[in-house]
Task: inverse folding
């Protein structure tokens, strides 16, 4: 499973709904979903995708972007927004 980068686009007035744009895949990678882990101190976001071709396969160099809303279990408040560790090869993707 791959973890791809994301960008915060907005937070609603109640600070419970985040709007994000994220790299969803492209070429030989297809989106699976977005994982959100909440603790008292942080909200970690991890857009997940999977390879659809064997390693070493030739794939196109296109980038699919996803847009979505994330509903938090509690208001964001003073918690930090954290990117999960992005998979190698996707660090420079700029959603």
Result:
């Amino acid at each position: 499973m791959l973890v791809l980068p994301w960008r915060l686009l907005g937070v609603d007035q109640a600070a419970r709904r985040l709007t994000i744009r994220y790299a969803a895949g492209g070429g030989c990678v297809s989106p699976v979903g977005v994982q959100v882990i909440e603790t008292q101190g942080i909200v970690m976001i991890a857009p997940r995708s999977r390879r659809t071709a064997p390693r070493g396969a030739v794939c196109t160099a296109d980038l699919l972007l996803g847009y979505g809303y994330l509903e938090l279990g509690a208001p964001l408040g003073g918690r930090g927004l954290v990117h999960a560790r992005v998979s190698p090869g996707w660090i420079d993707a700029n959603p």
Q: What stands out?
A: Residues 2-83 form one domain.
